[in-house]
């Protein structure tokens, strides 16, 4: 007859539960993101010898994965500009919070990018930035 060992039996009972918890934690943290890629399309005009309006920058349609939809996640867009390609110099956030963006008249060389934020009820958050488009005043 097997001798009852309270701590060992409890550990054996909790091990599969802990593994299941770890699996779901990793699954939701990895997959609670967007299903489609965050990208932007350059307008036709990227440079000029003086001030110019490049037109609308078209952003891709970003959709949530099925897991994110079930977690009541939301997508937020944010357009940013900076004077350097790494977005560390003179960063301006929240130029707009729309899928597409019209920067209007550009008077100085700048970079513009879109950031997509996903926030879920479970607390899961993710962020995806596009590369910057350079608008040049020669």
Name its key features.
138 residues, alpha+beta, Immunoglobulin-like, 5-stranded mixed sheet, two-stranded antiparallel ribbon, 7 strands
What is the structure about, briefly put?
The chain is an alpha+beta fold. It is 22% helix and 25% strand. The protein has a single domain, classed as Immunoglobulin-like (Sandwich).
Topology of helices and strands:
Elements: H1 6-31, E1 40-41, E2 47-48, E3 58-59, H2 66-70, E4 74-82, E5 110-119, E6 125-129, E7 133-137
Parallel strand pairs: 2-7
Antiparallel strand pairs: 1-3, 4-5, 5-6, 5-7
Q: How is this structure best described in words?
A:
- The chain is of the alpha+beta class and 138 residues long.
- It is built from 2 helices and 7 strands.
- It has helices spanning 6-31, 66-70; strands spanning 40-41, 47-48, 58-59, 74-82, 110-119, 125-129, 133-137.
- A hairpin with a 5-residue loop joins strand 5 (110-119) and strand 6.
- The chain is elongated, with a radius of gyration of 23 Å.
- The secondary structure category is alpha+beta
Distance between the termini: 89 Å
Biggest sheet character: 5 strands, mixed
Instruction: Report mean pLDDT, rounded to a whole number.
Output: 82
Give the total of domains: 1
Radius of gyration of CA atoms, rounded to a whole number: 23 Å
- Do you know the CATH architecture? Sandwich
**Strand runs, count:** 7
CATH class: Mainly Beta
Distinct helical segment count:
2
Q: Note the beta-strand portion.
A: 25-35%
Overall spatial form: elongated
Order of helices and strands: HEEEHEEEE
